[in-house]
Amino acid sequence: MINLQAKALTIAQMKEAEARSNELGVSYAQLMENAGSACTAKIKELFPKLSTSSVVILCGKGNNGGDGLVIARKLENSAADITCIFCCGEPGTELSQKVYQQAAAISSIQFLDAKKEPMLCHFCLNQADLIIDCIFGTGFHGEVQGSAQPMIGTANKADAVRIAVDIPSGMNGDDGSCSISVFRADHTLALGALKPAHLLEDTQSVCGKIHTLDIGMPSEALEDSSSVKLLKWENLPALLPKRDPNANKGDFGKLLILAGRSGMGGAAMMATLSALRCGCGLTTLAAASSVINACFPHLMEAVTLSLAETKDGAVSSESLTLLSEHLSSSTAAVIGCGLGHDEHTEKLVRSLVKETQTPLVIDADGINCLAGDINIVQTAKAPIILTPHPKEFSRICGKSVAEIEADREQAASQFAQQYSVHLVLKGHATVIALPDGTVYQNTTGNAGMAKGGSGDVLAGMIGSFLAQGIAPEKAACLAVCLHGACGDQCAQRLSEYGILARDLIQEIPLLLRELEQNR
Description:
Blueprint lengths: L10 H13 L4 H19 L7 E6 L3 H13 L5 E6 L7 H11 L4 E5 L4 H10 L2 E5 L13 H10 L3 E5 L21 E5 L12 H4 L1 E5 L5 H7 L2 E4 L22 E5 L6 H13 L4 E7 H7 L7 E5 L12 H9 L3 E4 L7 H13 L4 E4 L1 H4 L15 E4 L2 H8 L3 H6 L1 H12 L2 E4 L5 E3 L5 E4 L11 H14 L4 H23 L6 H18 L1
Parallel strand pairs: 1-2, 1-4, 2-3, 4-5, 5-6, 6-7, 8-17, 9-10, 9-12, 10-11, 12-13, 13-14, 14-15
Antiparallel strand pairs: 15-16, 16-17
Helix pairs in contact: 1-8, 2-3, 3-4, 5-6, 9-10, 9-17, 9-19, 17-18, 18-19
């Protein structure tokens, strides 16, 4: 099993983790104190001008407000002046009341009630240099109401840096849904672990830059609360094997790529080039003859296998025997990139899944060819990695795209366990689900990668690592995270608008070099 940090915890899981921490000797009070200390340290790092700045902390009645009161106490000697605004009345929980008493003992901290003194509260917000949001935290759902609503509205318009503690007030921590009145942060300080909303692309404009803070929760408490793991760039050096200096090309695998039909040669070419860049010893592109003729000049390092072609430009099912022979001598295969879906390709894909003993990566049209009888994957004699996007996944799992997107991790995990496959559910925060129920969630990548060809590059990368003898779990995780990191590098250099799938391939060797140096 890959050793990764625990993933974003749902609100219920976070409560379980806090309760588990309490059982392990880190009390709720200590967690609040730790959270205040961690937030204070990060705030000082993010906002170094505190000594000459006015700080306003928006506090709710619950424990998120208690975190804000601890922050006020710990910032007391650092900021020019500090004002705590109670947006929903005075503290209402035992913990928040206790820390209020401690903060109230400091004469330099001003306390205001948004309901009783609205004009003064608005004035302070408009004069603030830094506004810290501690109103609702993770317990929020629905719409912001009462005196908190105008406070958030004024805070969002103020010429100040805005920092949210844990979750911006007005956002649901699980699904990312937002109230009309939601605090719009420049930075969000996630306490203990990320929450699902932090990983959603649509919430980035509300959360700003997200920082995960250690608040002293025992690792056992976090690990016991979620089986989903975050896949980060720093995890990758351990997944990349060291190459034997005395090896030859035969020691680094033999990959067969069945891809491409007339008009879709680019998919075949990008899958092949990305596989070559990821270090596979021998890579063969098997495609319709017209595709081979078009791609051949651009694939000097690859072997090509020209297959019989139908009148529509697809690979003919007559090629099954030839493909089976080549598969038997391959260490892995990629099937489906730009392959097309008709009776010929359907027969080919299904036959190869049932007969071959070679590990398979099945992508795009390869998945579509299985949609009519997905149970066939359970007859496979070797590991299978499926790499669908949500629409393709919908075709094979029987759920709508909306149902899938509502809980991607759960949908992927159920499918992977039911059909004993490794599933790479592509999209923002790509999910990798294993047959044993373990789920990884990727943290690299950006919206600029949402363009044709990006998935073909990923399929070739996974296939290359798989062919080199890397276990399916590690091959998928390594390729997905590296693929996203390539996209992030491209976005910095070219902008998210300007990224092409081919640009990702150029970044592969540069990032692999970085991984080798950090191994």
